[in-house]
Design a protein that fits this description.
This protein has 164 residues and is an all-alpha fold. It has a single domain, classed as TerB-like (Orthogonal Bundle), CATH 1.10.3680. Helices cover 69% and strands 0% of the residues. The protein is globular and about 40 Å long.
Length: 164
């Protein structure tokens, strides 16, 4: 997103946003969700290994993507996110395509990603709230999603590593 803004102020035309369609082989809903998740992941200027692992797991569980498909989606979504002027192009797709329950799951995933590295940075908090607002999620739903993500994070953190 910053690249597009820099291009605008430098007098260059920003690159056209990447669209999810047959040409890219990416579902537009998956693209929109992944781009927003990457915005959260990069909000603190670092896409940490725990955040990457969390996002890869989300893409596998919620979108039923193979690791290769997930990697491709992340690459296309990252380009789209960097070229976007705002979040509206992504949130509008999800707002039209998702019902309230799906939006709540998305909000919980956003909070889970923000928590993946063990702390929620101030800008991650701001962006998550902004995205939820653009998805037309009421504050009570957002709070419930945050609590659910925090509970899941604590439960996962307390699980033993396994044999060894």
């Amino acid at each position: 997103m910053l690249d597009a803004i820099r291009a605008l102020f430098s007098g260059q035309a920003p690159p056209a946003p990447v669209r999810g369609d047959a040409a890219t082989g990416v579902d537009p809903i998956h693209l929109a969700a992944c781009a927003l998740l990457l915005e959260i992941a990069w909000a603190d200027n670092e896409f940490s290994a725990p955040e990457r692992a969390h996002l890869e797991g989300v893409l596998a569980r919620h979108f039923n993507l193979t690791p290769e498909e997930g990697t491709r989606l992340m690459a296309v979504a990252d380009e789209a996110r960097r070229n976007a002027i705002d979040h509206y192009s992504f949130t509008s797709v999800l707002r039209k395509s998702y019902d309230t329950g799906q939006k709540m799951v998305m909000a919980e995933i956003l909070w889970g990603l923000a928590l993946a590295d063990g702390q929620i940075a101030e800008h991650e908090h701001y962006l998550t709230r902004k995205i939820a607002n653009l998805l037309d999620l009421e504050p009570g739903y957002l709070s419930a999603a945050k609590n659910a993500a925090a509970t899941r994070h604590r439960e996962n953190a307390s699980e033993p590593e396994g044999p060894g």
